[in-house]
Amino acid sequence: MSNPLRDRAVIVGVGHSPCSRDLGKSPMRLTLETVLEALDDAGLKPSEVDGVAAMGGAPEPGPWAMAESLGGDGIHWYGGALGGGVGPSVVANAALAVASGLCHTAVAYRTMMAPRPGDSTYNFMAREGPTGVAAFTAPYGLGVFMQYFASWYQRKRRVFGVTDEQMGAYVVAMRDNASRNPHAALNKPITMDEYLASRFVCEPLRRFDCDLPVDVCGAVVVTTPERAKNLKKKPVFVGGVSTGTGPRPDMIFWDDYDRSSAHWANEIIWNNAGLGPKDMDFGMIYDGFAPLTLYNLEEYGFVPRGEAGRYFGDGGHLATGSFPLNPHGGNNSEGRSHAIGHVCEAVLQLRGEAGARQLKKADATFINGGAITLAGALVLHN
Fold first, then answer.
1. Coil, strand or helix at 21
2. Predicted TM-score (pTM) of this structure
3. How far apart are CA 178 and CA 183, in angstroms?
4. What is the pLDDT of residues 134-173, one digit of tens each?
5. For 72-82, what is each residue's pLDDT tens digit?
6. Which residue in 41, 198, 235, 345 is deepest, having the highest Cβ count within 10 Å?
7. Is 211 left (phi over 0), alpha (psi -120 to 50) or beta?
8. From CA 72, how far away is CA 39, in angstroms rounded?
9. The domain that contains 235 carries what CATH number?
10. Domain presence at residue 322
């Protein structure tokens, strides 16, 4: 069954800031500069934008603020995050708007700011009066995301025998990939011994398994294939999008710790795109925590269930492997961007503009975002 979105929207411009613990810029300045970089990459003027997609939660400037800052005559469409996965999902939101005729040229972006002294990001213990499930877990010290996820990762290890060395093989490779990425915050290669010696944040989750909070913005420009014919860069087609979550979106009371929300996003992404996992040349797999890749690889159909650890141990994720992953280093090494960095890298790879990171074959890719209870996915191709 043909999907009405398929190949009716294209990415024609990309912008990406450096990743740093402190870029010395306000969220608005950082975001506007990156959006303008993406528009310049596409050969478009700010006044030609009539759609904006963003998460739009503090500190990121929302669609209204961006529309005003671009200085046009107004926009036809604006939207927040679509479903899960944030980075891929705001791009999906823009693609859906363009494909459906709500606007003809949209910018989609995600801005993240590293916590400053005194901030309590992701720490439910620091909030006044935690509510819902947190009201029953925070008083006992279960208050940050890595603590929630650690039990999931422990389950994966016990059921399928994932080892430290297998997970380390992924992290070590990402640091090596990031050494060729000028935007990456963690661009110094590490050894397996250094990975294994890294302290536990919440056992079995190690420090090197966790992405680094940074100041960063990534942005893309989405338009129609017809409009793209007159622009300066090769268009990248949006073949399909999907989002998903389970019947009870809570990390504690989720029904099955062996199955994440990617299960539901996977149910429609390949039919929407008219392609399958075997058609993808490389994967941009979300890794806010490195072990999330175990779930994503298996649930989107790239490796059989229970085989993701072995895939890492055999080097399948390397540039020379059976299915290369995250040539930019992923969130794990580039820096926390909620996978908008994955989207930017995917576009560069598909356009053949990734420099020293360029893969030999890059005609189609899969991108996902989201962690455990929320999922979003994109298929992009030439």
1. coil
2. 0.94
3. 8
4. 888 888 888 788 898 999 999 999 999 999 999 999 999 9
5. 888 898 888 88
6. 345
7. beta
8. 13
9. 3.40.47.10
10. yes
